[in-house]
Amino acid sequence: MDDTSYVSMEQHLCAVCGVPYDTGNLLLDRRLRASMARHTTTGWGLCPEHQRLHSEGYVALVECDLRRSGDAAVGRMRPEQAYRTGRIAHLRREVFGQVFDVPVAADQAMVFVEPGVIERLQAMTVPSED
Length: 130
Ligand SMILES: [Zn+2]
Hints:
β1 and β2 (about 20-30) form a beta hairpin. The protein has helices at about 50-55, 95-100, 115-125; strands at about 5-15, 20-30, 40-45, 60-65, 85-90, 110-115. The strands form 2 sheets. The chain has a 3-stranded mixed beta sheet, with no helix packed on it. The protein has a 3-stranded mixed beta sheet with strand order 5-4-6. It folds into 2 domains: about 5-45, no CATH class; about 50-125, no CATH class. By secondary structure, it is α/β, with parallel strands linked by helices. Zinc ion binds near residues 14, 16, 49 and 50.
């Protein structure tokens, strides 16, 4: 369906929800060949919604199915390896530190968690408005 063109809208995939979003950048083929599809995904980032939650002090917990995520360890999973179950929760940074007993860096927007973690969390904490 996508016609190729020498100009393409750059998109990133949101590392939290996995949805592509426009970065607002245009990519141009250096030789003006019709080499690109209408949209080109160049990397990972945060969609406007999850960027907002990140800047408001939330950490996203992204549940992924380890058995379908290759042999990656949950702590060192790269976004492209993760098989997302679609379940996402947001915790305030300071709450995250209390619950998991590990500090989370200020620039860390998200962590991958195993199935069941979010469910347990929701049972023990008051869910956020998200
Ligand atoms: Zn997102």
